[in-house]
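Below is how a single chain appears once it has passed through the pipeline. First comes the sequence as given, then the structure the pipeline wrote out for it. We keep one example in the README because the format questions we get most often are answered faster by looking than by reading.
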Amino acid sequence: MDIRVQGPGPTAPFLSARDLFETEHDLSLPVYVQLQDDPDERTWAAHDDDRHVLNISRQAASSAMARELALHEFSHMARHEQDHPSHTQSLEEVLYLALAGRRVERRKLSHCYQIANHMKDIYADDITLSVGPGEKLLAFLESRLAMAVADRPETPTRAGLERLSPSADPEITVVNAAFALALAERHDLVGDDHRLYDLAHAAAMDAPDVDFEGFKHRFRELGRETDSSTYRQVLVDATRAYVGGEGLAAE
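Resulting structure:
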């Protein structure tokens, strides 16, 4: 597995991630690591005909999560090379199948992309967690969810209940919580008393119209082996479950 770090910056996390990854998997194409100056740059993978590209900020590359972030992106690259349905399915096709004839808020349409990304992450992390420990990933998921439910405003909501997750859209926060717990349960990373359950409960209370348990089940029970038709239907069903509603076409 060929790793090429572009520009000045740490190389050890990427080489360490490669060593872990190669215990079970390999990539046919070389990986070019592009270190970005912007500390807010999201870590993400791109795919060309002759290479994969891992984009990551220098700050993230120097963090305690650097190896785990790289390993996660290597797993996405592996799924891409496998032509796995989660990484080849057109979301535009899914939205057309799921939402034709319905009126949908742009906010919720953007959330549909997040739901699809969660499913891609489930399949990528099936690889990630088969070769590396899950403690740091679990701590990362817990930290991100805690940030979303931490701030409590003084003003009650219309129902007279205090909003528990004002820093993020409460509806997608519930889905994010369902994803975090689903991944943790899928790989036996948590016990029944883990704090992640309390955080997820707080998020779910803030958006009771979103089926937290339903989404957790959808993510956790994604088939280990799937084909394009099955995966497309799973994603269509999840999109309809989240958006709901009826009426005119999405806008």
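Residues 106-131 form the longest helix (26 residues).

See the next section for the split statistics.
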